[in-house]
Amino acid sequence: MTDHPPMIMMHSFLEWIGKSRMSFYGHEDLNLPLWFGAACWGYAIAGITLLWTCGPKIRSAAAANNSNTCYTFPYRFFALELIFLQSPLSFCADYLNMTNDSIFHPLDRVVAITSMAFEAYKIATLPATNKFVVQAYVMAAILALCAFSKSQAAQEQLDRDGFVFWHTMWHMYPIVGSVIALVDYYWVGQQDDQRGGGRTAAAAYRVEIHAGVSARKKKKMTMDKVP
Length: 227
Prior knowledge:
With 227 residues, this protein is an all-alpha fold. The chain contains 9 helices and no strands. The protein has helices at 5-17, 34-39, 42-64, 75-96, 104-125, 131-156, 160-171, 173-194, 201-225. Helix 3 (42-64) runs parallel beside helix 8 (173-194), helix 6 (131-156) runs antiparallel to helix 7 and helix 6 packs antiparallel against helix 8. 27% of the residues are buried.
């Protein structure tokens, strides 16, 4: 029964997940560059960006729709997972222990797969997001997965330079995703306002913030006019 293709694929997948030794095991002269290690912390940047942009989008979208329904995407959990799990594990597995037999390798894979599942869920369900922003997310994710595949191939061939380049490109996805999120949060909302279209969640939140400031200024001006 184990010779069926699905069973073979599952066995190979579980074997890959559980590997504690990479192809560069024992190659103590690998000498990965410092910027390669720094790129592992891009996930923390993505987590911080998620906390900065996602909460306001959700709250203002609910307010704009007069809805009390709760947005189901656990953005706080995902953000904290990126900051406190994915980034440290990536750094420990890919930079500190690439040449070692280490439990960090299977842990990093499990968390990375979980993170990609959360990312797909986020892209599919984030409210009031411009369709071109969604397309940018999808394109960036596809390119990142291609880069990951290339990095795995380079690693199997013991191609140090190829692995460093392609795995860094894989680690650039959270940085690119953060840029897309910030563009969506600030620039896209402003453009929609200027075109007179429906206000995006980010734009609505900016209005919500500035409404309080404007009200205070108006009150102060009124008080100044009183003799």
